[in-house]
Amino acid sequence: MTRIGLLSDTHGLLDKRVLKHFANVDEIWHAGDIGSSEVLHTLREFKPTRAVYGNMDSGDVRYSLNEFYRFRVEDVNVLMTHIGGYPGKYNPWLIPMFQKSNSLKAWEAWEKEDNKETTSSPPIDLFVCGHSHILKVQYDHQWKMLTINPGAAGKQGWHPVQTLIRFVIDKHLIKDLEVIELERK
């Protein structure tokens, strides 16, 4: 079982309440627009951290991270990027990635554990993005994956509430998802 703390769009401000809410997680994931290398450093000092850069990131942040991050936690294959969209409204450059990973052929090969016989990537079980500052958790029936956008944990933007998400990955299950709202001060 792996406990995840997910945030996005800090824009250079890491609210101290984030660390309090992520005290019991095993990993932190940041879906871009980190805003400063200090925020990334603080997160990495606190917990193991996976992150992608966002469109507003520059300098050290952009050069130390990738735009797309594919990884596996327990039995869940994850794709994380900053500008992603949501079911039915994905950014067009993601569709070829989804097609390569989530085709019927890819699923059949991976279910048989015969993944050496296909050029497809492992199926994406969880797609994580940020950018919109709109918290959204939605299952995509077309691509057979859960999509999560944690909203915005920073104070820059129009959103009235800072949001974070905690959840658990337990083998192949994504469960116990909690939305955390921080009133803006």
SSE layout:
Elements: E1 2-7, H1 16-21, E2 27-30, H2 37-46, E3 49-51, H3 59-64, E4 68-73, E5 76-81, H4 95-102, H5 104-111, E6 126-128, E7 135-140, E8 145-150, E9 161-170, E10 173-183
Parallel strand pairs: 1-2, 2-3, 5-6, 6-8
Antiparallel strand pairs: 1-9, 4-5, 7-8, 9-10
What order do the strands of the largest sheet run in, or round the barrel if closed? 3-2-1-9-10
Would you identify the CATH architecture? 4-Layer Sandwich
H/E series: EHEHEHEEHHEEEEE
The strand count comes to 10
The CATH first-level class comes to Alpha Beta
Mean pLDDT across every amino acid position: 91
- The rough form would be described as globular
Mind telling me the CATH superfamily name? Metallo-dependent phosphatases
- Percent range of helical residues: 10-25%
What share of residues are in beta strands? Answer: 25-35%
The profile of the biggest β sheet is:
5 strands, mixed
Poorly predicted regions are none
> Could you say how many structural domains there are in total?
1
User: Which class do the helix and strand fractions yield?
Assistant: alpha/beta
Number of helices, where a helix is a run of at least 4 consecutive DSSP H or I residues: 5
Distance between the termini: 34 Å
Account of the 3D structure:
With 185 residues, this protein is of the alpha/beta class. It has one domain: Purple Acid Phosphatase, chain A, domain 2. The chain has five helices and ten strands; from the N terminus they run βαβαβαββααβββββ. It has helices spanning 16-21, 37-46, 59-64, 95-102, 104-111; strands spanning 2-7, 27-30, 49-51, 68-73, 76-81, 126-128, 135-140, 145-150, 161-170, 173-183. The strands form two sheets. The chain has a five-stranded mixed sheet. A five-stranded mixed sheet has the order 4-5-6-8-7, with no helix packed on it. The longest helix has 10 residues, at 37-46. The radius of gyration is 16 Å and the shape is globular. It starts with a strand and ends with a strand.
